[in-house]
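cache lookup: miss for this entity combination. No prior model stored, computing from scratch. Input as submitted by user K.M.:
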Amino acid sequence: MSTPNTAPAAPGPLLRMRDIHKEFPGVRALDGVSLSVGHGTVHALMGENGAGKSTLMKVLSGVHPAGSYTGEVLVDGEPVRFADVTESERAGIAIIHQELALVPQLSVSENVLLGHEVSRFGVIDWGATHARARELLLRVGLDENPATPVSALSIGAQQMVEIAKALAKRVRLLILDEPTSALNEAESERLLGLLLELRAQGVACILISHKIGEVMSVSDEVTILRDGRTIETLAVERDARGVPSVDEDRIIRGMVGRDLDQRHPERTGRIGPELFEVRDWTVDHPTRAGRRVADGVGLTLRAGEIVGMAGLMGAGRTEFAMSLFGRSYGRYVRGGLYRDGRALPVGSVADAIASGVAYVPEDRKSLGLVLDDDIRSNTTLAGLRRVSTRGVIDPGLETVEARRMSEHMRVRSHGTSQTVRTLSGGNQQKVVLGKWMFTRPELLILDEPTRGIDVGAKYEIYLIVRRLAAEGACVLLISSELPELLGMCDRIYAMCEGRITGQVSGEEADQETLMKLMTRTGDQP
Amino acid sequence: MNQTSQTSPRARIGALLQGNARQYGMAIALVAIIVLFQVLTGGLLLTPLNLTNLIMQNSYILILAIGMMLVIVTGHIDLSVGSVVAFTGAVSAIMLTSWGLPTVVVIPAALLLGAVIGAWQGFWIAYVGVPAFIVTLAGMLVFRGATLAVLGGESIAPLPQSLRVIASGFLPGGDGGLHLLTLGLGLAGSAVIVWIQWRSRARAGAHGLPVQPAAVTAAGSVLVVGVILAFTYALADYNGLPLVGLLLVALIAGYSFVMRSTTMGRRVYAVGGSERAAALSGIRTRRTTFWVFVNMGVLSALAGLVFTARLNAATPGAGTMFELDAIAAAFIGGASATGGVGSVVGAVIGALVMGVLNNGMSLIGLGVDWQQLIKGLVLLLAVAFDIYNKRRAGSGSALPVLWPRGGRGPGGPAKGGGSARGRDGVERAPV
């Protein structure tokens, strides 16, 4: 809060992060990232999902404590080592996550000053607290009664409360992770306007967003991350009409990289005739009535074909896939799944499985596996009928089948009685794949099948997917990694806001085309 | 096939012991407690008379523990079982005395009543989504109140001999000397278990799975037969096998089989282990939860019948704290509070640990004050021991895990189903 103008007053930047490395078991999340943010500037951080943006911000805010990463963090030129979030907040750094951290039952002012109440000897002075809250709410331009419970506010207003809460901690650097993903256009503009106002008051901001347009309209600088590395930092200037000096294509190229990597196995089988069709699949949000999460989705899938589904986070791909799989998500409105022109019953998961549909979920640990069970019982769980007669499981047959599937999927384990919790992410995913292959599906939906899996295991998963397709299954591959889609798919659909915004054949597709389709809102396909 | 060792014998024995220490921790503790009290009581604990008493005193807790284990495996809890025991007992007594219905009608009617009560609670838990803790806490109050209401605050006694025989009857043939029918049953039971052990070993071999050396299986068989015969001989020396003992053997064998070897049991474990993963695997999770509570209701009614018959009276205060004994038995027997883990045999062992402690402490004249205190500490230490072991062995060895981890499938052992059935036999032996 040093100076009320945009020019950096103190010598040197407010924040410098130098050569940050951070590893998780089996995954190198950050591989030498550097970032520098000036006083009172808006700095955008861009990159694909998994590029390392969130990890970097967790390092900065002390969620990943000092010692769990290597590299230097300097605030005002002084090296800092945050052990937890409290320490980074004391240094004036506040992070606002995608999932808001408000207590819905408490009032606006209680939330704003949570942990910073005006008190004397531990007794809260409610008069002073409300007055201080009102002052902070005015600063973020939120005209709400401070006594209103937060749950009664819109998401946009809740976001403002979060920012007011950060201001209560005398924030100098505000980190916003996808702040506008849940907001409508008017709310987004208000939020972006607020960032500019705060900048004028000397508060710097790191903005993480997928929406290139809004990023270009407010930021002073853009840093692009890819595969855990800093690719480049671009200064953004806007001319008198607000046209930015850096164009979107430049950013996209930086995000996706120019060279396509060859880390995907070649297609082996041949593509057969059209087998499955999804028509007009429309689903509402489970609790918010009338909010479409999938809107008239139509797809065709051919035997042996790997069909990709591209989209940004929140585009509705997972929601669509889960609703198609026995209505496991949301409220069904209309639409159907057809095989050779005949409608299939997919009203329950059991029906969907019986119809030859399998869904490998994005969240394999909580949705795909029973973690405390062994490989054998996880493998057979969705297909117990195949190893039982009149409800009695044949243990020998089960072991033999599970073992065969394990070998087929090349699961590395001590044996089929190993608990899946103790397997690596890649091997867990192979168990999930095996579990669904055991049901002998004709339509296999894979939702982010390689998320959080290291490169070597990824290749093995790709090989398995190729083989399944070669055996004649239709594969619908949902992925946020464009190289994966481009390397694996024969055809790719793009989805945005619950609608299919276009399809491209595997040969014609490139990252820029897809990125444009994925961010096309409101357009007709 | 007899020698499948790739590792040195010593390493194998080490691994076996280590595995046993984890798996059979509670069984070993049970044996240790039995030995301790056998010494402290100067040999009174394992007399034929006292063994018979042990079975009869603990029968209703054992029945409840089996049902409670299923409830806990699905990730829930049932606090109402004590009140349901009292209510079904009271209604049974009224049907027998005031209405003059014959016992053969009253028993199925009481079990049906238990099923209805279970369905009522299961409906709120599975379909409305009220936490089981709340629903069954309400049930605890509701059915205790209902018991008081139907009994008018008074006890009903005595009850007809036809009911009392459930809890106090013995197999026929006791005319002095050794009870031959009991011995015969013991021999038959041993034969069946040995047959199962060797058949399952042969089957594993037929599937091309590695099997344990024949000597190991044989040693298991000898152990099983030895324990069963010693136990039945002791019973035969007194009055023979109590009827309720036969009922327990049937329940334990039946529920073990269902939980280990059927798709139904597998679904219960999957729902408790991860409800969402189970739902996405095509399991009707709500229906599963519902039926687990119906089952608990039926077993509560059965325990109510046995308890009422044993007491020869229906009293308003019957079954108080039974729920806690059953829950303690399940947790001592290796169930996990987060669901998905536990086995019927484990619950039985847990109940026996509590039962032997009760009985042994009474025999040496410890007061109720000390009994409560010690049982509380045993519960705490048993669960802490389990958690400590899991954390230490966090890497989850490939060693067989029977009780702590469900103990349901002969695939327990790392290298296939070799001798799990054998262990099954050992587990059933003490009953």
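stored under new cache key. The first helix of chain A runs from residue 53 to 61.
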